[in-house]
Design goal:
about 425 residues, mainly alpha, 3-stranded antiparallel β-sheet, elongated, binds zinc ion
Amino acid sequence: MYDLESKTQQVTQAKHGLHIPMLMPDEFFMGYLGRLTHINGLGNTSNTNKILSAWVKQSHPEANVVPAAYSLPKLLDIDVETFIRQHTFAPITGAIKSKTVQRNAEVTARQNSNLQGMLITTSKKIKKAACFCASCVKEDIDYLGFSFWRRSHQLSGIDWCLKHNVPLREVNEDAPYEIQPANYLMNKRFTEVNIESHTADPVVLRYAQLIQDALELAVPLDFKVTGQVLFKQSKEFNIRTSAKGNKKTLSDLMIEQLPDYWLSKHFPNLKKERHGTYLSSFDDVLRLNGNGKSCMNTLLAAAVLFKNADEAIFEFTQHQYKCPPKAKPKISDKAIIESYIKFQGNIKRVAAELNQSYDTLYARAATLGLPALTNVNRATFNAIMSFFRGEDFLTSINKPGVNPEKFESVIRIAGGQLSSTINKFKRSMSSTKLS
Ligand SMILES: [Zn+2]
C-alpha cells in the first residue's frame, strides 16, 4: 500500500555527516528523532542520541547528559526553547517557569536550571500508548510521501483526532516512535480507541480545549494565579478547599462529572475508597500558593468548575499579563513564495518582511516544501529556480558564479515539492524579477 522505504523524507541538508529531514509542524520530537534515525540508517534512537551528544559536547564539554530536546534544535539551527514549546510536552508538564521566557539562546543545558527542568520533563510520556490518526497518515502519505507522529495526538485525555474527528489508533509497543505511523497502519499493528462515551461529554470537550490552549500560551500558566482563580470559582460549588471538613471536595466533583472509562484511562490516580476523602494531588490545585501542582490536574479542575474553556483561560492569564497579542493576519502562500524567492530561501528575512516569527514562517514554508536555504549564493539560487522552471540541468549548473555542489544538493534534497510549488506559482509570479 505505501512505499515508504524509497521515499526521500524531504531531507533539507546534511550536517555532521547526518542527513537532516525537515521538521514538520506539530511533529512530536520523539517521532522526529525516529525519522532522523531511520533516514540515516542508525538502527535505533539511542545510537542517534550518542552521535548528537558527542557533537553537542564538542562545544559544551561541561554537559553531562544531552537530551534530544536540546541537541535536535541545535542540529536544526532553531531556538531550543521554541523547539521545546512546539514539539514536546514541556508546556503542560508544568516544566516551563515564567522566568525561562526570557530568551537566552546560548545557555547550555547545564548552566540554566530552568532549561534543564524543561529538558528533563520532555522525556515524560503523557499517554501510555503512541497514537496516530489513520486519516492524517493517509493525507501525509499522499502529500508528503511519508508520515510522522503528531504531538497533538499524544495529548492525554484526547482520544480522537481534532482535525478529522475520528478515533485515534493506539500503538503499545516498545520504542513506537522509531517507526513511522504508516507502518503500523499498513500492518494493522494498533488498537482503535472507543470514543463514543466521551466525545459528547461537555467536561471532556472543555478539557480538550484547555489542554490545547495551554500548549499555545506564550507564557506558561502561573500556578499561584490558577490557584486563586480556581479557589474563587469553587465558591459557586460549595466545595471544601482544605483537607479538614465534611463537605464535598473538588476531586469528588471531578469523579461525579467525568465518565468513568475516561478517568480511569487518563487520570488513574483520581479514585478513592470513600466520598469526601481529600486527594492532595487533585484538591491542592485550589491552594493559593503555586508549589508542586500538576498542570493537567489544574486544567481538569478548570474544565469542571468553568462552563466555558475560553473564560477559564482568560481568567488564568489576564491577572498577570496583558491580553494576549491578537493573531497576526494570515499570510497567503503566494506572499510567502514571492518573498522566499526574493530573499533566496532566507527564512529569517522572509519572516521579517512578512512580520511573522521565524518559527511560524519556517513551519509554513515547510508545508509548502520550501526549505530554509542558507549559504546559497544568489547565482546558485537563481540557477536552482531556472532549473525548476524547465531549464536543462547542464545549462543551469554551468552558469557563472554557481556553486555546483550546493546546486546539486539543493535540487536533490528539495526534490519534487519545491519544484511543484514553484511551478504552481510560476504564472502568478511572472512579474517577479529573477534574472
Ligand atoms: Zn487526523
